Amino acid sequence: MPQRNDTAIWSGLFRISAESGQTLQAQIRQAIVAAILDRQIAASMPLPSCRILAEKLGVARGTVVLAFQQLVDQGFLVARERRGHFVNPDVLATPAKPHQKAPDQQNEIDWKARRQIAASDMPPPAKHDNWIKSSYPFVYGQFDPALFPTAEWRECNRMALAVLEIRNWASDMVDRDDPLLIEQIQARLLPRRGIFANPDEIIVTLGAQNALYMLASLLMTKGSKVAMEDPGYPDARSIFRLAGADIQPVPVDQSGIVTSSIPSDSGFVFVTPSHHCPTMVPLSAERRQDLLARANRNNQIIIEDGYDSQLLDEAPQQALKSLDRSGRVIYVGSMSKTLAPGLRLGYIVASAGLIAELRALRRFMLRPPPANNQRAVALFLSLGHHEALVRRLSAAFDERRKRLVHAISAFLPEWRSTDSAGGTSLWLE
Q: With 0-12 CB in 10 A as exposed, 13-18 as middle and 19+ as buried, what is 365?
């Protein structure tokens, strides 16, 4: 354990970097708190003076003074006149971080043998962890940091952290969502797709996959038959299989899913009509009408994933949901492609009765997505930042798509790419 004047050892407890994304003051506080809770500093031991520690860390003395003062205010340190700063003994009364124990191999439980759902047997995402560090990361569904509206997003988060705002979102919402976010989805996002819904027909989810998982959990069981585009969205297929459903693959051509090949005994039809995943072709107007007619005739439920739908050409086709008159279409939307995948915010638009059931189910699973994130996104939408971002992204992706098509034609002449109406990826054949 270091002594007060062992400045080299003390400085070794700190990992201060100007490139960490945190302020120097926050990094100093974080390092001291970790050292205290890990029992690297005893209660009887004085910390180095602010001047000495500042010299060793190469920071301003005022930075260390402010860090120490905040730790005193939080109760981690106590200041003793003319003696310096010490660890508050009350903090050390809490248990220390336990040492890692070697597992008991003989009595270790075989969890795979006990599982009822073979989740780990499903295909994992085809993305490596450090994809963003690649010189040319050909990975779909990830955002470009250079296009992210950092200043606007920070503004909305600061607004969401105002005292009155915190009082609005900090309480338990049970099964409700942020009313401002529901209002903005209703007024800003859905009309772009030709969808006009009431507030009780919208629920917020932790992204599109969470939406699909909730729908599968609520509506599907062992033996449920789900018609899907082939090729199609792999994670949707895995989610439906986890619910016990039987997948019925349906071919796709240049006009989208071949509706005449959808089995009449399917209980559900999963489609990505705006941009088929992965070929990116849109479902033709004739096929859309035929799909709805078949669903009515065969009593089928259509799950529409608005895949890449916000990044369409200037005159995109309306969502399949906009043509629905019988409540058979469930629309799943996401903000991952436009704002950020890590934000994990999506939504479902469906009949009020189904949304009520989904709210009841969600209450037993995750409850609503974090309310502070919901409010920040609601503010982002209400201030027009999202509308401006979509225009900027659409222009950037359109330019990149044109360059990619040109490069494929020049360097891969034997390959053919689909002529997609916008979006974030190309399909090569």
A: exposed
Structure tokens at 3: 């002594």
265/328 Cα distance (integer angstroms)? 16
DSSP annotation of 355 reads H
Joined tokens for residue 40: 């690297």
3-class state of residue 315 by DSSP: coil
- Cα dihedral: 291, 293, 295, 296 (round 10): 170
68 or 115, greater pLDDT:
68
Q: Where would I find the H helices in 324-384?
A: 352-365, 371-382
Kindly report the three-state secondary structure assignment for every residue of 130-195.
Answer: CHHHCCCCCCCCCCCHHHCCHHHHHHHHHHHCCHHHHHHHCCCCCCCCCHHHHHHHHHHHHHHHCC
Q: Can you read off the two tokens belonging to residue 295?
A: 């669903």
Consecutive H or E run containing 228: strand 225-230
User: What pLDDT is recorded for position 9?
Assistant: 59
Q: Which residue has the tokens 């309306």?
A: 318
Residue found under tokens 């909305």: 156
State the first-to-last Cα distance of the chain, in angstroms, to the nearest integer. 64
pLDDT at 13 over 90: no
In three-state secondary structure terms, 275 is: coil
CA 313 to chain CA centroid, nearest Å: 25
Contact present, 182 and 333 (Cβ < 8 Å): no
Between CA 224 and CA 241 the distance in angstroms is: 9
Torsion of Cα atoms, 258 then 259 then 264 then 267, to 10°? 100
Closest by alpha carbon to 325, among 288, 270, 273? Answer: 288
> Above pLDDT 70, what percent of the chain?
88
Pairwise CA distance, residues 33 & 3, whole Å:
17
What the block records as the tokens of 218 is 């609520």
| DSSP one-letter string for 50-69 | HHHHHHHHTS-HHHHHHHHH
Spatial separation of the C-alpha atoms in residues 386 and 371, rounded to whole Å: 19
Whether the pLDDT of residue 419 is over 90: the answer is no
Cis, bond preceding 125 (omega within 30 deg of 0): no
Domains and CATH numbers, the chain: 7-93 (1.10.10.10), 146-385 (3.40.640.10)
When pLDDT is cut at 50, 70 and 90, the band that residue 43 belongs to is confident
> Comparing C-alpha atoms, which of 260, 340, 315 is closest to residue 293?
260
